[in-house]
Amino acid sequence: MVSDLKTALKETVAYLFMALKALYFWRREPPVTTVAQLVAFVESRSKYVAQTTLYGYIKTRAGTRYVSLYEDELFARSVNIAKWEIYLTCLCDMATYATAAVARQAVARPGELAALAVHIVNSATMAEETPAERPQGFGDIREAYAAHAHATAWNQIEPEKALFENSLSALVEWAPIADELKVRDVEIVKNSMRHKWKKVREQLSGALDGESVLADWRSMNGQEPETGEG
Question: Mean pLDDT, consecutive 10-residue segments, the chain of 230 residues?
């Protein structure tokens, strides 16, 4: 039991470190002109939003018992499960939003946007070690998202707040809070995440160069750039 608790606490600390790293990028606000930069943006903001909303919700509900709760092995494990499930949903929502934003700025060929969106999710998840709370890894997420991406009409998407409804629901579903309390918290908790996603949308809007990202994606795949002819 002690070993399991130490492992859970270690993973929680590691996740907090990732979120702090994401916060660094949040403040620096680098331009997004390449695929690698877009992946980094999506990953870091997804971790930041997932971490701050989950731990913020728990802290608000727990009050002075916040630290002592982590001495409970079952609770610590529940938090670690929640943090991954919420982050993965945030990642997929953010990948969809970011790709739709590229579509608004650049004219893409058939299949390019779906492939780009899949690449974002695949790159982010493949960079992670398999957590104890998700022994199956992230293959199910990649498979489900690929099906979603290839069924999406990217040029018809309005990349607004509605695209984040899945992550809002995931926060409520996975947070290790008693169901009777969640019922009263739903709108407050969702609004907290909506506010953070709003800042992310504003930030991407000011940093994204969709044409450059798409040109970089074509270069990565050995495709010729658009000439505007024909």
Answer: 52 57 56 97 97 92 72 84 97 96 92 97 97 95 97 81 88 93 92 95 95 97 61
Q: What's the whole-model pTM score?
A: 0.84
Q: Residue 32: name the closest of 90, 101, 132 by CA.
A: 101
Residue type for position 204: L
Please tell me the distance from the alpha carbon of residue 177 to that of residue 11, in angstroms, as a whole number: 20
Alpha helices in 64-178 (DSSP H): 66-69, 73-105, 112-126, 139-150, 165-174
Residue 163: per-residue pLDDT: 84
46 near 92, Cβ under 8 Å?
no
The DSSP output letter for 224 is: P
3-state secondary structure of 32: strand
Domain ranges of the chain: 2-220
- What does each C-alpha distance from 154 to 33, 36, 89, 110, 213 come to in angstroms? 20, 20, 19, 10, 16
pLDDT computed for residue 8 by the predictor: 52
